[in-house]
Design goal:
The protein has helices at residues 36-41, 96-99, 125-128, 142-145, 174-181; strands at residues 13-15, 22-24, 28-32, 52-56, 61-63, 67-69, 77-79, 81-87, 103-110, 113-114, 134-136, 140-141, 152-157, 160-166, 192-194, 202-203, 209-214, 220-225. The protein is mainly β. One of its GO terms (molecular function) is metal ion binding.
Length: 229
């Protein structure tokens, strides 16, 4: 048995719909600026530029029904609803025609963002990769739901629709995302990939209830809590 000098952290895991088993999270990859309307609202280039990748800590995971503490060092805390891929395979330089074979299932997630400290030449980690920044709903296996190429993606705050689009409007499609990401990192089972957010991103405050949806997938419900400090 391995001996550690401090207690080993628990492995973050996402529930699988209809099963007692859970999906262990190894790494959390994210794709930025992957819907044209969102690129426009952020003032970016609308061309099909190479995908913009970043990561979140695996232990930033917040499950359905959880509370997201309002983070420190921001006064402009934003939501970004996204379709999430859960990987069962991986590798380097995965061909596009083999990419879907690597997917275990799909979920709906939210990329929470400290918008007021994003950009300006600063690293994205402090804006994107903080504690409790990755709410995620239950995973549905691709064997049950098929491979999602279209369908409504939506986010509401206190019952008011803030984001609404269709997954088919992704600039970089799912096979392209996996193939391109695997040229930078060796993908592995347990990795999850957030595929990008549509337009309509905006701020939330303590007490707000966020509901995120993608057609065919379980809804995600989280509440914004008070700051921890």
């Amino acid at each position: 048995m391995n001996q550690y000098v401090v207690d080993a952290p628990e492995i973050p895991a996402i529930p699988v719909q209809g099963s007692d088993a859970r999906f262990p999270v190894r790494r959390v990859y994210c794709v930025g600026r992957n819907y044209v309307a969102h690129v426009r609202e952020m003032g970016g280039n609308e061309d099909r530029d190479p995908p913009l990748f970043f990561q979140k800590p695996a232990d930033s995971l917040v499950l359905d029904g959880g509370t997201i503490p309002y983070p420190t060092m921001t006064k402009d805390f934003h939501f970004e609803v996204e379709l999430v891929l859960a990987m069962k395979g991986g590798g380097l330089n995965i061909p596009q025609d083999k990419a879907l074979d690597q997917i275990y299932g799909y979920a709906v997630g939210i990329d929470m963002t400290r918008r007021d400290i994003q950009g300006g030449g600063r690293p994205w980690e402090i804006a994107k990769s903080f504690d409790h920044s990755f709410p995620c709903g239950a995973i549905v296996p691709a064997s049950e739901v098929g491979h999602i190429q279209s369908g409504r993606i939506e986010l509401t705050v206190n019952g008011e629709t803030r984001q609404e689009s269709d997954v088919e409007l992704l600039i970089w499609k799912i096979p392209e995302i996996i193939a391109n990401l695997s040229t930078y990192f060796e993908l592995m089972p347990g990795d999850v990939i957030l595929t990008g957010t549509p337009h309509g991103v905006g701020p939330v405050k303590p007490g707000d209830r966020i509901e995120a949806r993608v057609d065919k997938l379980p809804e995600l419900h989280v509440t914004v809590g008070e700051p921890l400090a």
